[in-house]
Amino acid sequence: MDTIENKTNKRPLSPHLQIYKPQITSILSIFHRFTGVFLAFGLLLSVIFVFFTAMGEETYKWWNCIVNSLVGKGLLFLWLLAIIFHALNGVRYFLWDNDIGMSIPSVKWSGLFVCVLTLVLTCVLGILIWM
Amino acid sequence: MKNVVTHRKFQRYSALAISPLSIWIVYSIICMKGSSFQETYNWFSNPFNAFFMAAFFIISFLHLKLGLQIIIEDYVHNLKHRSLTILSINIACYIFAGIAIFSILTMLF
Fold first, then answer.
1. Which residue in A22, A26, A21, A28 sits closest to A115, CA to CA?
2. Do A54 and B106 make contact, defined as CB atoms within 8 angstroms?
3. CATH number of A24-130
């Protein structure tokens, strides 16, 4: 027995993303994971950046060209958005761990608050970094 | 990390540790924008910066490893593939964290 799959009747396995009704709670939970995976790739690239800086001026300049290209800037902006969202939504998990804000209305309001604050902070920091 | 409670605790503690470090890094990026190679290199050779960068990478890779493990456990249902995927993620995390520490030490000394 090396698989959990139900072979006799093909029932869907949890998490039931296909049949789950989209709500702000579920969407933000999925987005939290999605940004987490996205940030994992960002962490790998930042390791490469540190490595290239350590290797000398030539590799550093080569890397700088990529970062300053339009694609590089776009990706960096998305990473900024992702890290801010992941951090702010993480605060919600901390509060829930301490049994704060667990009621349905407050879960919805805090979710909405996280979305708005993410957009505002991303724009402000984006301007500070690229303007 | 076999124990689920330990796993969860480390996930939360590492998150707590990363948040101030990330704020510091974003602040540093804003301060350092448009800086030359020498300025960037000098920033890394400062022991304070080197220490906190190393801490950031180590804790972030721990957080990444634990977080991806949960996702793999949720979506990869074949147990053989599951453990193989988690093992390869762990190895990749150690390798990349090693590269980061090596680079930081190179610039420090």
1. A28
2. yes
3. 1.20.1300.10
Residue B56: which residues within 8 A CB-CB, separation 6 or more? B18, B21, B22, B25
Domain residue ranges in chain A? 24-130
CB-based contact B71 A33, cutoff 8 Å: yes
Mean pLDDT of chain A: 87
Residue-range domain boundaries for chain B = 4-108
Instruction: Return the residue in A2, A32, A50, A68 with the most chain B beta carbons within 10 A, the one to mutate for interface testing.
Output: A50
Sign of CA dihedral B29, B97, A51, A42: negative
Give phi and psi for A3, each to the nearest 5.
-140, 150
Q: Look at A57 and B37 and tell me if their CB atoms are within 8 Å.
A: yes
CATH number for the domain formed by residue range(s) B4-108: 1.20.1300.10
Q: Is the CB of B30 less than 8 angstroms away from the CB of A87?
A: no
Residue among A5, A36, A87 whose CB faces B67 most closely: A36
Nearest-neighbour CA in chain B from A108: distance (Å): 22
Per-residue pLDDT tens over the stretch A9-39: 666 666 676 777 788 888 999 999 999 999 9
Distance of alpha carbon B58 from alpha carbon B37, whole angstroms: 24
- ipTM given for this complex: 0.90
